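User: I need a structural model of Nitrite reductase from Dietzia lutea for a docking pre-check later this week. Nothing fancy, just the predicted structure tokens so I can convert them on my end. Input:
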Amino acid sequence: MTPDRPGAQDAERPGHTHCPYCALQCAMSVTPTTGGVAEVTPEWFPTNRGGLCRKGWTAGDLLGHPDRLTTPLIRRDGRLQPCDWDTALDRVVDGIRRAQAAGGPDGVAVFGGGGLTNEKAYQLGKFTRLALGSRLIDYNGRWCMSSAAAAANRSFGLDRGLPFPVTDLSGARAVLLIGANPADTMPPFLQHLGTAAAAGGLIVADPRLSATARRALDGGGVHLRLRPGTDAALALGLLHLVVVTGAVDTRYLAARTTGFEDAWAHAAAWLPERTERVTGVSVALLERAVRLLADARDAGAGSYILTARGAEQHADGTSVVGAVIALALALGLPGRPRTGYGTLTGQGNGQGGREHGQKADQLPGYRMITDPDARTHVAAVWDVEPEQIPGPGLSAFELLDSLGQPGGPTAMLLHASNPVVSAPDADRVAERLRALDTLVVADFVLSETAALADVVLPVPQWAEEEGTLTNLEGRVLRRRRSITPPAGARDELWIWHELARRLDRGPERFPTDPRAVFDELARASAGGKADYSAVDWDRLDAGEVLHWPCGADSPAGTPRLFLDRFATPDGRARFMIDAPRTPAEPTDAAFPLLATTGRLLAHYQSGAQTRRVGELAAAEPRMWVQVHPVVARAAGLTDGAAARVVSRRGSVEAEVRCDEDMRTDTLFLPFHFAGTGRANLLTLPELDPHSRMPEFKVCAVRLEAAA
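Assistant: Understood. Predicted structure tokens for Nitrite reductase:
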């Protein structure tokens, strides 16, 4: 299949499913083969155009992997041992009852994940609030999209990762990526940047010369190699240049925005020379970036700005993204054809996973749990009184840090997440999980977190379940069962129904049929920001292309948002800028370097899945640290040497990889590895005041030889 076949339809055919990894949600089909292995075949779809990355091609390898969990496990005499389902669920119920007898409804906490289907994300939130009566639920997407979400809600009144179809990028001649490396994280996405790259209009802001930055330079584009933690300063410096060079779109500002004067009061101080001094990016490159974006806009040739985790995973991530949105607004990009601002969602259902109620502060339809009208609407769908719905809980890290503490939860149900590897200050989080009386983990492999559990519940994998997901552009997709799950695995919807039955908490409220759950989700979302009320499985199975909001006012869906007005009360976008701050943890003589973390082509998230795939594990088998040769020599190290990276919280063992393109003040560590190779042993849990995002992307460290 050719990437640009004439007349290609956006619609997916029955039998298609989607990759289990990132939010690009590349289409594929899965065919069972002998020996428990499944064959993956790429299918044409707008996001991937018939392509798959290395992770997608090998996705079938896990379906029959020998590490696959096929029976429940309970801890006896300090060891996890197989048991039957009745024994496992009885143990879970006993733990819930003990915890709630001691601590009330909030004696039990729940932690979800951005890999759950829409149906499961919805049901998990409902189960927590009604069956358990607990307010304590959050999920790992808090560490992925929350800063971008908070900033978009503040400025636009609505958060959808890409407010336009990803294919809109394909013709753009200028694209600025801030903190994004899709060449490694979602390689098929690069097809949509081809025009910009060939035109010399691909601009990448990243402390490293990443594979995406190299692609930009190869086409004559720009690499803005900023100092870690200076993203907001970079955005304000670019905004300053937009204004003083006359690139600002004054008619757009007057017609469609509010608050520009306050924004300029911040940006006016960010003279090009000051921006260069703080960020390390030359004035010439700053000026060129602005010129490329403005020229493409003026020529009607497509001009876009996109952010990702590199910009967002900071203790001021909301402010960083707010400054980037301000830059986009000054250029007049959001809410117009062939221009725009968006953010690249990470996890497979990172978009849908945050819309339906597994966040501490939200109800289905992207409603806020503190909104009386939202509570009344959802309560009516759930057939309860509004006061029966608990109030807001704690954000992800705060929730994990409260476990086993005085007055904190003593039991946790954890789904589709591996915080022992993925959480900041990871040893501290592991200690809190060990302090629980009852830790229940539902997974299909024994992750590092599952290995600490008192009860492990085996669940189906992606190709073994039915449901829906929402990709990075807000399009609702069908996940179709291609493989029969192992006899011992049980679907999460069944697990929650059984727990509700055993607890005598209204099991009829928790159906096991995902189609029935989706129909209720659609009703619960009606009238909300993320309105799915006109979506149903029959429409999706018939091949209709449905982007939310898709409700009574927009039954055909909304592929492009904000074309007429923004989702604010007055319809105008808001400039929301705070003063830039320095990283939460400064360097000093003991910790003179800055560490930043990121992803690799061969691995995904905590690596619990991809480290078990032979081809991927062989490509990247162990932890490493990327450093400039000068930095390595100063520590008495050479390429390939065994090193320790030490922060104020812990240390990581890693192999040295010298790279002359690295900044001499910066180290890079991938975060997919386990044990003493966990990059998040170093990171600090300083939290953004708006999004509660931790400071993942920069911490003070030193480099030394391993003992």
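Before docking, keep this in mind: The longest strand covers residues 651-658.
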